[in-house]
Amino acid sequence: MALYEYVTQEQLAGFDKYKYSAVDSNPLSVYVMHPFWNFVVKFLPTWLAPNLITFTGFMFLVLNFLMLAFYDFDFTASAAGHEHVPSWVWVAAGIFNFLAYTLDGVDGKQARRTNSSTPLGELFDHGLDSWACIFFVATVYSIFGRLESGVAVLTLYYILWVVLFSFILSHWEKYNTGILFLPWGYDISQVTISLVYLVTAVVGVEKWYQPCLWHYLYRDLFSFMIIVCSFTVTLPMSLYNVLKGYRSNTLKHSSMYEAFLPFLSPVLLFVLSTTWVVLSPSNILELQPRIFYLMVGTAFANVTCKLIVCQMSNTRCQALSWLLLPMTPVVLLAVTGVVANETLLLYLWTAVVVLAHIHYGVSVVKQLSNHFSILAFSLKKPNSD
To answer: 207: which DSSP letter?
Structure first.
């Protein structure tokens, strides 16, 4: 028995019919990374389960987040006059980030190599990718920090939301068209950031204080590239593909309302979290940026995972994620000052969100493992008793 049956019988039936369909047209991915991953996967033992590869890669990103949380919890270590993050941490971050990216690329190849491809593998991969967004963004933020030479915590908050919505766009697109169009920005950003970590270890964070073009700093380039890429490439292409399907009557859902329904919960989450940020009596984002980002990123991952389940099972997306229901009174308690210790409230709510998301993930994995009669982290067959 699963801990809780989050996946309905209708969705299980949909998973039985699921066929993977994706388009990857990024030259970096097609001509460089895929040949590299094809080379790497040959060195992996055939008994190694693809989901274990996926999980190991994800844990490298979590390890990066935890390392930087230890040395730069408040995102101030990169500022002038502060004790900087040790160089070896940036070396480790660069290696771990590239390892995570590589393992994310070879897990599917290992599945095909061992004839163990299942819908659970894709769901597990994309589900962890949705959570990895926050660990990736928060770790990169430590390069620039939040003070004079860095990026304001409020600016980074909105940049985080741009990254999160860019991620969900691909799965919203697949929810409507049945095809996953892999974004170009992912591969480019992973290779670039891995190199930036290593360069930072050599030249120091002071390098990023200097202007890179005229009077614009590297921090400005960092923000500019993320925002421009999202609004000039990712968003227009997703809208184009969905609207093209709508005009040709090939969408999987019958109306524009149904097509855009998956955005309801993410938008409500944005409204709730931004309300907390703007109306916070103690300016909670300035006090606890790392924990607030973690709360938002984890809640968003939970919403996204439920969309991925619906997208893969070809079922209707839920209009409202249940996690937003208790979040509403939490935000009200915070902004009205009813709870005096806002930091404690944030920590408690973040713990609830993280534990709820882990519970959801474990339950879904167990339920699908039982349904397909497989083991999530082993290629051995489960006992028949």
So the answer is: G
Q: Report the CATH number that the domain containing residue 240 is assigned in CATH.
A: 1.20.120.1760
Residue 2 lies in a domain: no
Cα–Cα distance for residue pair 17/363, rounded to 1 Å: 21
Residue 312 CA to residue 20 CA, distance in Å, equals: 9
For each of the chain's 385 residues, which pLDDT tens digit applies? Answer: 444 678 999 999 999 999 888 888 889 999 999 999 999 999 999 999 999 999 999 999 999 999 999 999 999 998 888 889 999 999 999 999 999 999 999 999 999 999 999 999 999 999 999 999 999 999 999 998 887 778 899 999 999 999 999 999 999 999 988 888 887 778 888 999 999 999 999 998 888 877 777 777 777 777 787 888 788 877 888 888 788 777 777 778 778 888 889 999 999 999 999 999 999 999 999 999 999 999 999 999 999 999 999 999 999 998 899 999 999 999 999 999 999 999 999 999 999 999 999 999 999 999 999 999 999 999 988 874 4
**Alpha-carbon dihedral sign for residues 320, 325, 328, 331:** negative
Tokens of 213: 């073009």
Tell me whether residue 379 is in a domain. no
Give the whole-angstrom CA distance, residue 375 versus residue 10.
22
36 found inside a domain: yes
User: What residues pair up with 213 in beta bridges, in sequence order?
Assistant: 216
Q: How many folded domains does the chain comprise?
A: 1
CA 273 from chain centre, in angstroms, equals: 17
Give yes or no for a contact between 15 and 371, defined as CB atoms under 8 angstroms apart. Answer: yes
Helix segments in the chain, DSSP class H: 9-16, 27, 34-41, 50-71, 87-113, 119-144, 153-177, 184-203, 218-229, 235-247, 256-260, 264-279, 284-287, 289-313, 324-335, 342-372
Identify the three-state secondary structure at position 248. coil
What is the residue range of 304's domain? Answer: 9-372
Residues in the chain: 385
Per-residue tokens: 274: 């931004």
Hey, what's the torsion of the CAs at 164, 167, 171, 176, to 10 degrees? 80
Note whether residue 273 is domain-resident: yes
